[in-house]
Amino acid sequence: MKARGIVHRFGDNVDTDVIIPARYLNTPDAKELARHCMEDVDSGFAAKVKAGDIMVAGRNFGCGSSREHAPIAIRECGVSCVIAASFARIFYRNALNIGLPILESPEAAQSVKAGDTVAIDFDVGLIKDETTGETFKAEPFPPFMQKLIAAGGLAAYWRSAR
Question: How many CA atoms lie within 13 A of 113 on its CB side?
């Protein structure tokens, strides 16, 4: 599995209320959630992000409440991967459950800049900043987890295995 896109950069401790504000949680429509993704920190984010783009953030990304709405909003915006120095554990689990690829790489999170083009090889955990030529390592997911992500998450994977 591979991804390539333009970087949208965020800082440390981006919580789920910033990713998708609570005032929008009354809709089950994932596309509607996507329209409001990150709006309290970057009001133009949903309009700027293109399919395949990549989010890069600092430490503790996805902290706060345990809502699955946060990774759903990010995925539905078109983001192909979130790279962060670290993730809140509940966000980490929810992202995998809904099929949003995420990678922990403190070095990439520190070095990659907004607007850079990044290519990712999920099979080996390689992150390449094509703008600067730098490469970074992340722990690749085992093959069964890559299949789960490619299927669109845990429920879709389970349905396809039946």
Answer: 7
Cα 8 to Cα 78: distance, rounded to the nearest angstrom: 12
- Determine whether 81 is exposed, middle or buried from the number of CB atoms within 10 Å of its CB (0-12, 13-18, 19+): buried
User: Taking the model in full, what pTM does it have?
Assistant: 0.94
Residue 102's contacts (CB-CB under 8 Å, 6 or more residues apart) are 81, 82, 83, 84, 87, 92, 95, 96
* Sign of the dihedral defined by the CA atoms of residues 72, 77, 79, 80, in that order: positive
Classify residue 40 by its DSSP letter. T
* pLDDT tens-digit map of 63-82: 998 889 999 999 999 999 99
Q: Please give the Cα distance from 52 to 1 (Å, whole number).
A: 13
Cα→Cα distances 8→25, 48, 98, 123, 141, Å = 23, 9, 21, 23, 23
Residue carrying the six token digits 């669109």: 152
> Does residue 30 have a pLDDT over 90?
yes
d(CA 10, CA 84): 9
CB 71 within 8 A of CB 59: no
In whole angstroms, give the CA distance from residue 5 to residue 79: 9
Please answer whether residues 53 and 42 qualify as being in contact, where contact means their C-beta atoms are separated by less than 8 angstroms.
no
